[in-house]
Amino acid sequence: MIKLKLFLVTLLPHHFLSRIMFLLTRSSRFPFLKRIMRHYIKKYDINMNEAQYSDLDAYPTMNALFTRALKPEARPVDKHPESVCSPVDGTVSEIGKIDQNRLFQAKNHSFVLQALMGGLENRARPFYNGSFATVYLSPKDYHRVHMPYEGKLREMIHVPGRLFSVAPDYVNNIPRLFARNERVISIFDTDRGPMAVILVGAIFVSSIETVWAGTIVPPRARRVTVVDYTHGPHHITLAKGEEMGRFNMGSTVIVLFADRVQWEAPLTRETRVVLGRKMGRFAAQAAPTKTGNA
Question: What per-residue confidence (pLDDT) applies to 174?
Answer without folding.
Answer: 87
